[in-house]
């Protein structure tokens, strides 16, 4: 298999901060590779160097198919003066230029130009290409194609940029956080789209289900080095644990040997022979190796919150609209102690508006909300980063509190609290502008939690946070002694945290689903399949009623046996399906078991449908006979 990318001995640092050093790896054709590292480790810098947008300090990058390469940046740069259509088709390849020209001339009245444009489209098979492009644009729910880029939101611009790189069908594609600003439906479509292509992919994303289902290799950047794992995200977790365990064993051996060598160094005579000097050099190498133990960092988030009273939050028959666009209609809910709710729905369905209503930023146009006197909100917003870039990191948190009280009664300093959040002490005196985007998000999360809330409201908390931070945040939320309302498109996050979902279906309809996201997805898919099956049955019945009475064709002996067997098989499959659904709703499964059971459930459905259709066909003939 040929190589698409070769990276040799690459190094990059910013001032005194060493991002990576002497890293090397190869990307082979059609492989889909995830790049995993904590915030600030240099993921985006590495992608920019590979793409030729940023210099390296040392090393070589060889991209063997640069003419068929696309890069989706985390913050894409688009021309604000162009329309969505013009930006999407702004590449210089022949087909895109032909489509752009065709769309332009059909707005005029020059019949000769229109005919020439049509003939050009016919000659290069542009119609098929345009149809495929339109499908991508539809799936990503792009706004009016005549709208100017400068008028779009950040999320809309990200989707335009994603569509732009996908429609060119490059042989090598780099994606930096592609799932940010996509709703769950779009993420699942992109997941399926990338899984089926033969494209070579290098991707940074925090979406762990996406990683698991799309990628077949993982590159881990850790302590300025890189480790390669040939498998998906689940395989990476298993092998990473083995690597850390083995590395720590080697360090312990080195530490034991070093104690012996230290004793020799103390007793060593002043006259140093060549052999002694070699042993001294070896001692210092051993000392470095003995200091490389990997400690599993954990964020202690057990902060003491304000004690809750009996009344928490009561939402009574509220309605709200933006002009003619309804958001909520007659919504009612009473929060209970320690309730954890996930909010899902398409972009623009009103999720963030709902959060602003329950926190009092917006007032409902009908109904009312009553908040308990003891409730203290902690509101993590999508647009919550309002730091002064010149302020030192330590000063940002000290403005909130000098010390933080923990749930066990102990207190820790603001500096120690920052350290829990993987801000090492030397970084405390850095100005905020030196932090990466993900590090700023983590600092913002610190400022929200330091205020000791008992009702957390999180609007897209997973965007731009690294996977390690997400894991510890999930652990904190699972043990949090208070209520949580979270809006996120991260399905893994929802599965680990929430008790139930508010599903924004559009048209101001909000459903309260009793379960996590995977359980909701199973229920929703099952409902859609049943509706489709009912339509097939109705069509078949209508066709049967239209047919003239024909001579009945009796079933053969083999077909009668098949009919009997089908009844038994369908019953067994239905029973297995119910058992899986009960297990999925039990809340006792870990993430791997949840995935396996979900996949088996998804496989059972088409089996039941196929056997049911065959049973209906044979039953109808048996009745006529």
Provide tags for this entry:
625 residues, alpha/beta, Rossmann fold, 4 domains, six-stranded mixed beta sheet, 45% helix
What percent of residues adopt helix (DSSP H or I)?
A: 40-55%
Low confidence ranges:
293-300
Domains (count): 4
Strand order of the largest sheet: 5-6-7-3-8-9
Estimated structural class: alpha/beta
Quick one: CATH class of the largest domain?
Alpha Beta
How far the N terminus sits from the C terminus, by CA atoms, comes to 60 Å
- Kindly report the average pLDDT value: 82
What report would you give on this structure?
With 625 residues, the chain is an alpha/beta fold. It has 4 domains: 79-168, no CATH class; 237-290; 313-515, 3-Layer(aba) Sandwich (Rossmann fold); 521-624, Helix Hairpins. Helices cover 45% and strands 20% of the residues. It contains 19 helices and 20 strands. The chain has helices at residues 43-50, 84-88, 94-105, 111-123, 126-139, 154-167, 184-196, 208-214, 233-267, 274-290, 351-358, 393-398, 414-420, 437-449, 467-479, 491-497, 517-546, 557-584, 591-624; strands at 3-14, 17-28, 32-36, 58-63, 69-72, 172-176, 200-204, 217-222, 225-229, 313-322, 325-334, 340-345, 366-371, 377-380, 403-405, 411-413, 455-459, 483-487, 500-506, 509-513. The chain has a 6-stranded mixed β-sheet with strand order 5-6-7-3-8-9, sandwiched between helices. A 6-stranded mixed β-sheet has the order 14-17-18-12-19-20, sandwiched between helices. It has a 3-stranded antiparallel β-sheet with strand order 2-1-4, with helices on one face. Helix 9 runs antiparallel to helix 10 (274-290) and helix 18 (557-584) runs antiparallel to helix 19. The protein is globular. Residues 293-300 have low confidence and may be disordered.
């Amino acid at each position: 298999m040929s190589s698409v990318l070769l990276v040799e001995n690459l190094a990059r640092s910013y001032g005194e901060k060493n991002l990576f050093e002497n890293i090397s790896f190869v990307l082979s054709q059609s492989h889909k590779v995830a790049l995993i590292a904590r915030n600030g480790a240099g993921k985006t810098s590495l992608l920019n160097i590979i793409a030729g947008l940023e210099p390296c300090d040392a090393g070589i990058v060889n991209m063997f198919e640069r003419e068929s390469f696309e890069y989706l940046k985390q913050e894409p740069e688009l021309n604000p003066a162009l329309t969505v259509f013009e930006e999407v088709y702004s590449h210089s390849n022949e087909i895109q230029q032909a489509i752009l020209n065709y769309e332009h001339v059909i707005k005029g009245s020059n019949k000769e130009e229109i005919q020439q444009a049509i003939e050009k489209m016919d000659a290069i098979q542009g119609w098929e290409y345009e149809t495929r492009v339109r499908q991508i644009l539809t799936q990503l729910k792009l706004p009016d194609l005549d709208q100017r880029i400068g008028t779009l939101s950040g999320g809309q611009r990200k989707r335009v940029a994603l569509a732009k790189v996908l429609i060119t069908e490059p042989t090598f594609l780099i994606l930096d956080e592609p799932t940010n600003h996509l709703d769950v439906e779009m993420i699942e479509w992109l997941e399926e789209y990338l899984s089926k292509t033969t494209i070579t992919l290098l991707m940074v994303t925090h979406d762990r289900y996406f990683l698991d289902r799309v990628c077949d290799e993982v590159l881990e950047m850790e302590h300025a080095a890189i480790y390669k794992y040939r498998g998906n995200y689940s395989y990476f977790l298993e092998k990473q644990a083995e690597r850390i365990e083995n590395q720590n064993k080697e360090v312990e051996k080195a530490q034991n040997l070093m104690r012996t060598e230290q004793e020799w160094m103390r007793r060593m005579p002043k006259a140093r022979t060549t052999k002694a000097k070699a042993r001294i050099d070896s001692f210092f190498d051993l000392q470095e190796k003995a200091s490389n133990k990997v400690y599993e960092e954990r964020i202690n988030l057990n902060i003491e919150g304000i004690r809750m009273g009996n009344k928490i939050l009561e939402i009574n028959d509220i309605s709200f609209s933006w002009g003619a666009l309804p958001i909520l209609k007659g919504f009612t809910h009473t929060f209970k102690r320690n309730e954890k709710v996930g909010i899902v729905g398409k972009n623009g369905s009103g999720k963030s508006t709902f959060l602003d209503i329950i926190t009092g930023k917006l007032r409902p146009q009908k109904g009312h909300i009553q908040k308990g006197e003891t409730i203290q909100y902690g509101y993590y917003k999508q647009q919550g980063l309002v730091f002064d870039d010149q302020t030192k990191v330590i000063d940002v948190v000290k403005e909130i509190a000098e010390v933080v009280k923990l749930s066990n009664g102990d207190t820790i300093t603001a500096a120690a609290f920052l350290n829990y959040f993987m801000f090492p002490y030397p970084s405390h005196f850095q100005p905020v502008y030196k932090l990466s985007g993900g590090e700023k998000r983590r600092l913002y999360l610190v400022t929200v939690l330091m205020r000791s809330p008992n009702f957390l409201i999180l609007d897209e908390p997973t965007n731009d946070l690294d996977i390690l931070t997400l894991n510890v945040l999930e652990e904190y939320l699972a043990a949090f002694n208070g209520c949580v309302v979270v809006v996120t498109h991260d399905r893994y996050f929802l599965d680990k945290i929430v008790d139930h979902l508010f599903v924004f279906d559009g048209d101001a309809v909000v459903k309260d689903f009793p379960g996590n996201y995977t359980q909701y997805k199973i229920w929703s898919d099952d409902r859609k399949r049943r509706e489709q099956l009912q339509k097939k049955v109705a069509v078949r019945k209508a066709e049967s009623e239209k047919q003239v009475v024909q001579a009945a064709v009796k079933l053969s002996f083999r077909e009668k046996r098949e009919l009997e067997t089908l009844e038994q098989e369908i019953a067994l499959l239905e029973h297995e399906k119910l058992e899986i659904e009960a297990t999925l709703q039990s809340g006792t499964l870990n993430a791997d078991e949840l995935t396996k059971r979900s996949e088996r459930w998804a496989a059972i459905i088409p089996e039941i449908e196929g056997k049911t259709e065959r049973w209906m066909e044979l039953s109808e003939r048996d009745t006529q006979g």
